[in-house]
Amino acid sequence: MEELLIDMHVTKKIHTSNGTEILDVELKISKYQLVTLFGKSGAGKTTVLKIIAGLLSVDSGYIKVGDDVWLDSTQKINLRPQKRNIGFVFQDYALFPNMTVKENLLYAYPHQEKNYVSELLDIFHLKGLCERRPNQLSGGQQQRLAVARALARKPKILLLDEPLSALDYDTRKILQDEIILAHKNFNATTILVSHDINEVVKLSDYMYIMHDGKIVKNGTPQQCGMVGLL
Amino acid sequence: MDFLFVETIWLSIKLAVLTTAFLLVISVPISYFLVYSKIRFKSILHALISMPLVLPPSVLGFYLLIAFSPTNWLGEMMARYFNLHLAFSFAGILIGSIIYNLPFMVNALYNGLVSLPNSLRQASYTLGKSAMTTLFKVLLPNIKSAILTGICLTFAHTLGEFGIILMIGGNIQGQTRVASIAVYDEVQALNFEAANRYALFLFGLSFIILVMVHSINKNNSTWKNF
Q1: Which of A76, B86, B104, B206 could be joined to B92 by an S-S link, Cβ 3.0–4.6 Å?
Q2: Average pLDDT per consecutive 10 residues, chain A (230 residues; last block may be shorter)
Q3: Of B119, B125, B138, which has the smallest distance from its Cβ to A82's Cβ?
Q4: Which chain B residues touch A152 with a CB distance below 8 Å?
Q5: φ, ψ for residue A31 (rounded to 5)?
Q6: A130 touches chain B (CB under 8 A)
Q7: What is the spatial distance between Cα A158 and Cα A175, in angstroms, rounded to a whole number?
Q8: What residues of B are in contact with residue A87 (Cβ under 8 Å)?
């Protein structure tokens, strides 16, 4: 049995196109796994990711990460996002427009040894672009920078919110390989939000299928019948 | 150029610079609070701050004059503890000016912060940065054009203030007689040539500042244009 890293069960009222729904999600994620939250838009996938990051509050529930309690509504524990050891890649990448590529990385962890930042620039093929501003990068380069910045603090958990949805097919394929590589190199347990079946099958060890704020199925992509849909 | 003219112009500029500097400092936390705080009724606070936009300056000036009076608790307290006599003094017109121009600075910063995607702030938090570091390193540097617009508008608007300054400060040479008051005073004395000098100065400076505001906004229409 692989070591359990994230154990969580949370509920929250959410507003969807069908009116108010109750988000009720229980996840058990093993260390170093790459797990996908799969479902239509509005199913609550991003909400779950933001709850794990501490960016959204819950009505009730708990989040345990290893031996640490990040959230426990009964004991009124709710760690701030700053105290949770995570890396978050936003759907719009949220790169800081006033900083260069290198400054974006240094902002993430200024005390990190200098070699580490240049290692990150190398791994993500950003070396030649380090003096550029985010708006001078292509979509793929912006995505790489967003992942590199999220990994700069060596987080335990990497959260990716549909990071490839805005990119063309070829770029997506290349970046999917890079996400696998980054996941292996940095040993971060990774949770990916996606609604692309190809991406889910290619990337994930395990998946949760969400519908209207609930988990309706979970297992490996094969167990969930995803492979047959390709 | 005569001494009185220079002194009056200098007082106008001093008032505008100090008002703008004070407002820049206090408007950052106020607009941050208005944009990001989750408390209810903050629209009431926002409306209160915006009141000078619609209120006749004489109304605000009247209430401030009453408050500054030594017979009132505020005026008495300021006089007793700080030796500050606010009615008919430069300190008084400065305070009036700050209150009167609050919406110009606050609304400019508010609009800048509201236009930023929420993910920028959230990304900074997930990178372990405090709200304060996020404000100074991420949010404010990305609303530079809004800050410059606020500075220019506040400065220009202070130069053009009339009603509130006349109510609180009167027309004391070297203390409360600013250029906009001088225009009125010279016209009352049928001294049209002197009035014209002040008027031309105000017209020219205000025009230059507005040209600056429009060129800033044209070059930086959104936060993305870096």
Answers
A1: B86
A2: 87 85 94 93 92 96 96 96 95 96 90 78 91 94 94 92 85 85 87 90 93 93 78
A3: B125
A4: 127
A5: -60, 140
A6: no
A7: 16
A8: 126
Q: Which of B130, B142, B223 sits opposite A82 (nearest CB)?
A: B130
**Residue where the block lists tokens 């079946």:** A197
Rounded distance between C-alpha atoms, residue B125 and residue B130, angstroms: 6
Q: Considering only CB atoms, which chain B residues are within 8 Å of A135? A: 224-226
Give percent above pLDDT 70 in chain B: 96
pTM confidence score: 0.90
What is the architecture of the domain spanning A4-85+155-229? 3-Layer(aba) Sandwich (3.40)
Q: Is B129's CB within 8 Å of A82's CB? A: yes
Task: Say how far apart CA A95 and CA A91 lie, in whole Å.
Answer: 11
Q: Is A96 on the interface with B (CB under 8 A)?
A: yes
Q: Taking Cα atoms as reference points, which of B45, B220, B40 lies closest to residue B144?
A: B220
Q: What is the pLDDT of residues B5-47, one digit of tens each?
A: 999 999 999 999 999 999 999 999 999 999 999 888 899 999 9
Chain B nearest C-alpha distance from A147 (Å)? 12
Residue B169's contacts (CB-CB under 8 Å, 6 or more residues apart) are B88, B89, B90, B92, B93, B96, B175, B176, B181
What's phi and psi for A172, nearest 5 deg? -60, -45
- The answer to whether B130 contacts chain A (CB < 8 Å) is yes
**C-alpha A38 chain-centroid distance:** 12
Calculate the CA A118 to chain-centre distance. 23
* CATH number assigned to the domain covering B3-219: 1.10.3720.10
Chain B residue with minimum CA distance to A55: B122
Rounded to a whole number, what is the distance in Å from the CA of B22 to chain A's nearest CA? Answer: 26
Cα–Cα distance for residue pair B195/B192, rounded to 1 Å: 5
